[in-house]
Specification:
Blueprint (H helix, E strand, L loop, with lengths): L1 H29 L11 H51 L2 H9 L1
């Protein structure tokens, strides 16, 4: 009999805690801003927040562009050097040897 009362007490306690948490959650979210009384005004977003975000995006974009540009420049230099070495080797190779190399 004691075990049954103990289980019933636990169930009632769990239901009370759940109801309290649900009530607090609804109360906390129900008090959010409305169209007549917003939490954040449109003028704040347009005058303060948006310019700040756009400035940060511009800085990060410029930084990334500079990084990519330098990587591309290095890659082009590397490919140009490799191409010029290949051309120089071909110029040193006699025409008959080049024809044999192309056949194999």
């Amino acid at each position: 009999m004691k075990k049954r009362n103990n289980a019933f007490a636990r169930l009632v306690g769990l239901l009370l805690v759940s109801a309290t948490v649900l009530t607090l959650t609804v109360a906390a979210t129900g008090g959010a801003g409305t169209s007549s009384d917003p939490l954040v005004t449109l003028s704040y977003l347009n005058e303060k927040f948006l310019p700040q975000i756009l400035s940060e995006v511009d800085k990060k974009t410029a930084s990334r562009e500079q990084t990519l540009s330098s990587k591309l420049t290095e890659q082009v230099k590397s490919e140009t050097q490799a191409s010029s070495r290949s051309t120089a080797r071909q110029a040193e190779t006699p025409p008959a040897a080049r024809r044999r190399a192309l056949r194999s």
